[in-house]
Design goal:
The structure is a single chain. The chain has 424 residues and is mostly beta strands. It has a domain of 159 residues: Lipocalin (Beta Barrel), CATH 2.40.128.630. Helices cover 7% and strands 41% of the residues. The protein is built from three helices and 33 strands. It has a five-stranded mixed β-sheet with strand order 1-27-28-29-30, with no helix packed on it. It has a four-stranded antiparallel β-sheet with strand order 2-33-32-31, with no helix packed on it. The longest helix is centred in the first third of the chain and has 22 residues.
Length: 424
């Protein structure tokens, strides 16, 4: 082998390794590539300057909303409402808007108390394999756009096609992709959940309706995860009445576990703890639950509750699993929590409430008071290492967007503003 060929092979290997590292830092879907809300990045700052990490830029013009950001191949995607219209946005690494694609009219609250919660809910989903970015609007229009140009590929009006009433707070789910399928919860008379071909929007299957709102609930507002258990690849999510598992190949409902609160919404994504265990948490005093998926003597799923406690009734800020412990905030139970994932016992509790993400052993906490904090993810106690105040406007609720760490950058959204901070 010649020196020249050896050099070429070494250079190719290095290039491939760099490319793989770059892709690993991408955050192509809500709560990341595997929906665990855990960044794979390392070498991040263990402490921030007193004034906070260096701000790289602030982007405006993205409309109001609670949508988080996703990143793929150097492009940042998010969504927002402008002039009563949903838009999908793409930004470059300097925060400049590259393109915007309309995604249907905006949701309008039917009850007075909800009218201040205006803005997109769903976070976009990027599929690098097909170079497509998807967005479910707050009125249930699912669009597929070219990831590079924003050109519309196809769209489906979910409530119109499947006979669904508009959820009280609009559609909030961030769709998940598995193979050629993208899954969306319709909660209509024509279907409860549907699988569509990601390339064409054509229906693959439509699962039967869960039933009436009285018996099966409405949209739960959570986003699904996908697990493999007992020979089935399962879509696991919530209605407002129960936690469920569904066969991703056929749409057959495999199991349900009752879990409802007094506001008829379950906003927090479930977490697969492993070995058949699923953790679920819900606000308004409902609390946290661990379910073990087991089979009965007929080979049917018979989920067993391991525990059901009032602790850490997570509202909508999300929860994190790390080294056998669950981290997040409670709603009526109040404060930031650490609980043992397998026993449900409280390890510690501290004042605060908000959204969370995880990177390099640390919790990134975005409080409802606008404080962005860095704390160690440890059962040894709640210890905020650094904190700074995110620029704010008039509405406290716009601090609800989930933070993201990708490619050494912390993304924090407030209404029409997206802030980017260097944390590498």
């Amino acid at each position: 082998m010649t020196v020249k060929l050896k050099t070429l092979m070494a250079a190719t290997a290095i290039t491939a390794a760099v490319a793989a590292t770059a892709l690993a830092a991408d955050w192509p879907a809500f709560h990341g590539p595997d929906r665990t809300n855990r960044s794979r990045e390392t070498g991040l700052l263990r402490q921030w300057p007193q004034e906070g990490p260096r701000k790289l830029w602030t982007a405006t013009g993205i409309g109001n909303g609670y949508s988080g950001v996703v990143t793929s191949r150097g492009i940042i995607y998010t969504a927002g409402v402008k002039n009563n219209q949903n838009f999908l946005f793409a930004l470059d690494s300097d925060g400049k808007i590259l393109w915007e694609t309309p995604a249907g009219r905006a949701w309008v609250a039917t009850r007075a108390f909800a009218r201040s919660y205006v803005g997109t809910r769903s976070t976009p989903t990027v599929d690098p394999a097909s170079n497509t970015v998807f967005l479910l609007s707050d009125t249930g229009v699912l669009i597929a756009a070219d990831a590079a140009t924003g050109a519309l590929k196809w769209q489906v009006n979910i409530p119109e096609k499947y006979g669904a009433e508009m959820p009280l707070y609009g559609y909030t789910e961030s769709p998940v992709i598995d193979g050629d399928a993208i899954f969306v919860s319709a909660y209509g008379t024509g279907a409860s959940v549907v699988a569509l071909n990601k390339n064409t929007g054509a229906e693959i299957w439509a699962s039967p309706s869960f039933g009436t709102r009285q018996s099966a609930g409405d949209a739960g507002y959570a986003s699904p995860i996908i697990i493999d258990n007992n020979g089935f690849r399962q879509l696991v999510s919530f209605s407002s009445a129960f936690l469920y598992g569904m066969d991703t190949k056929t749409g057959r409902l495999l199991w349900t576990v009752p879990m409802a609160n007094n506001r008829e919404n379950n906003c927090t994504d479930p977490i697969y703890v492993g070995n058949g265990h699923i953790f679920a948490s819900s606000g308004y005093g409902r609390g946290s639950m661990l379910v073990k998926l087991e089979l009965n003597n007929r080979g049917e799923f018979a989920p067993r509750k391991v525990y059901d406690v009032k602790l850490m009734d997570n509202h909508h800020g999300g929860v994190i699993l790390h080294d056998g412990h669950i981290y997040g905030s409670g709603h009526e139970s109040r404060g930031w929590f650490c609980i043992n994932a397998m026993t449900g016992r409280q390890v510690w509790n501290a004042p605060g409430k908000g959204a969370v993400t995880f990177a390099d052993g640390m919790l990134y906490l975005y409080g409802e008071d606008g404080a962005m904090s860095l704390a160690r993810a440890t059962p040894q106690g709640f210890n905020v290492i650094s904190s700074f105040q995110v620029p704010e406007g008039e509405l406290k609720s716009y601090f609800w967007a989930h933070p993201v760490v990708s490619h050494g950058v912390l993304y924090v959204r407030y209404a029409d503003q997206l802030h980017a901070y260097a944390v590498k």
